[in-house]
Amino acid sequence: MNETMQVISAERAGGPDVLRVGTQDVPEPGPRQVLVRTEATGVNFIETYQRAGVYPVSYPFVPGTEGCGEVVAVGADVTEVAVGQRIATAEASRTYAEHFLVDADRTLPVPADMDPRVAAALPLQGLTAHYLVRSTFPVGPGHTAVITAASGGVGGLAIQLMKPVGATVIALTSTPEKAETARGLGADHVLPYEDFASGVRELTDGAGADVVYDSVGRATFDASLKATRVRGTTVLFGGASGQVPPFDLQRLNSEGGLYVTRPSLAHYTRDAEERQWRWRDLVDAVGDGALTVRVGGTYPLADAAAAHRDLESRATQGKLLLIP
Ligand code: NDP
Fold first, then answer.
1. What is the number of the ligand 1 atom nearest to the C-alpha of 150?
2. What is the DSSP letter of 264?
């Protein structure tokens, strides 16, 4: 008889309560896969879009792309990872489970002195913050950047990656408590969402920001375009408030010859070299104390629905983790 494991799965799209605890066989790794015993798995906003049916998935759906744990079996063609090593990943699937499979080339080495919870919390939000500020629009000295959900997972890491290169960071948050967090992480200015385009213009002598990183989407995208300077870049990287409806490209002309992009992590981890470069940068920054990974809540795996509820309630700051 196969060994079994606890998993979280949904039989249909819906609210957090569609996430149910169940039992499945522990899977076997394919030739280029490794099997990981989950120590912690990260909860990410994308899983709420998938659970709710905003992004299509097949059922039964086991959420999760991110986790950290010990390698307990490897496929026949795996040479780069060995049984007994601790790895992390941002690019697995079905990680809301006591074990998960991941392609060997999507594994990330975890330093011996790194807390496994930090190693589970960092990959997806860290790699995202890294590609946004280093590659989508490479932020440098003298640039002014706006970031939404600035006290959240990606936002908080992005502030910390932008400050050391000499950028001015304008953080957007929804509460005074979150504003305080963003300031503590290094933001130069913090604005509420209400009429933030005017606030950004005031802070930049009317010019606007070089780049606006917008993860809130429907509720903010219009103002993000207005807050971007002539020939600046608006990066739409999420839709926490809903998806942005189609818009007239002529807007980009009337707002000042803007560049707009809608990237995903997969576009910026094209091969092992790119993935490992970003991960090494993040791990080094954590090791140097330049990057603080904030865990905003840990939940038993069986309480995945509560983690989703909390993330969607807009009350959380930092990373939420599920611990089997
Ligand atoms: P966060 O920790 O940032 O949590 C989401 C935050 O979004 C909330 O705390 C809240 O902060 C803000 N928010 C604004 N409007 C709403 C709303 N209507 N409902 C709920 N939250 C809202 O989550 P993550 O760091 O995991 O993800 C941040 C964003 O980045 C998400 O939109 C996600 O989809 C996106 N993302 C994109 C990736 C990509 O490659 N494109 C990869 C990873 C994440 P506040 O109250 O301050 O506004």
1. 47
2. -
In this structure, are 250 and 314 located in the same domain? no
> How many whole angstroms from 255 Cα to the centroid of ligand 1?
25
How many Cβ atoms are within 10 Å of 259's Cβ, its own excluded? 13
- Report helix angle 304-312 to 45-52, nearest 10: 100
**Predicted ipTM > 0.95:** yes
Q: Which atom of ligand 1 is nearest to the CA of 172?
A: 47
Consecutive 10-residue averages of pLDDT for the chain (324 residues):
91 98 97 98 95 95 98 97 98 98 97 95 98 98 98 96 98 97 98 98 98 98 98 97 95 97 97 97 96 96 98 92 98
Task: Give the Cα-Cα-Cα angle 167, 195, 142 (nearest 5 degrees).
Answer: 15
**Judgement on whether residues 158 and 212 belong to the same structural domain of the protein:** yes
Q: How many whole angstroms from 112 Cα to the centroid of ligand 1? A: 30
Residue 131 lies in a domain: no
Tokens of 172: 């957007």
Output the pTM of the full model.
Answer: 0.97
Q: Nearest to residue 78, comparing CAs of 37, 121, 136, 31?
A: 31
What number does the ligand 1 atom closest to the CA of 219 have? Answer: 15
| 111 and 193 part of one domain | no
Same domain for 14 and 113, yes or no, is: yes
Q: Please indicate, yes or no, if residue 132 is contained in any of the structural domains.
A: no
The domain tally of the chain equals 2
Measuring from atom 22 of ligand 1, which residue has the nearest CA? 240
Range of 78's domain? 4-124+269-322
Q: Contact, 238 vs 263, CB < 8 A?
A: no
Bridge partner residues of 146 (DSSP): 170, 212
CA distance 174 to 109: 36
Cα distance between residue 221 and residue 204, in whole Å: 19
